[in-house]
Here is the input.
Amino acid sequence: MGVEPTTSAFWFVPVSWLPGLSLHHGFRFRWQPSSLYTRLTRICISVLSQLHDFESTWLGITMETDMKCLNCGAETTNPKFCSSSCAARYNNKRFPKRKKQLYFCKTCGAETRYRRSYCSNCDPSKPLDFSHVMISEIRSRARYQANAWIRKLARRVYFGSDKPKCCSRCGYSNHIEICHVRSIQDFPQDTQMSVVNNLNNLIALCPNCHWELDHGILSL
Here is the structure.
């Protein structure tokens, strides 16, 4: 017949042997181990976990084995953190591994995006006035997204005008797409953007009407 384990033998361990022991109000000791005694702490916790109720009282002194995570404050049996993700967040905030490097424009000195030498206003490869830029120049700068670049300029021209911001066919206004009445492919390569993205060649359509226009169902 086995003997039921008791806690009286554990309490005769000197207090100085227990790492990180701190005194709270009401003669309550809360065990908050430091990183230097992590292994010893886990051994003590494993011993305490075999005792009933995880908490024992002897001569009015209470030892609590439940820890609180240093990051989120959740109760845990681990020495400091409830999970590896909380440990990573806590340590990365207090001890960052790298510092953010700032980049500045070579022309005006304004802060730019990651590893950019020029800001959007001073970028020499993208002139501010595209009215005299030809289709061939845009295709030489953006080989795989030339038409997307032209459509972006068309949206800039249309939304900067006083034309209605709704579908010209059905009146839908939650989302509109700017379309070319004469498609981009129909223009010669030496055509300037002022001609391709002329307001008379731009029209606002909803996605459904735009699809019908591209597939020949809708005619303008």
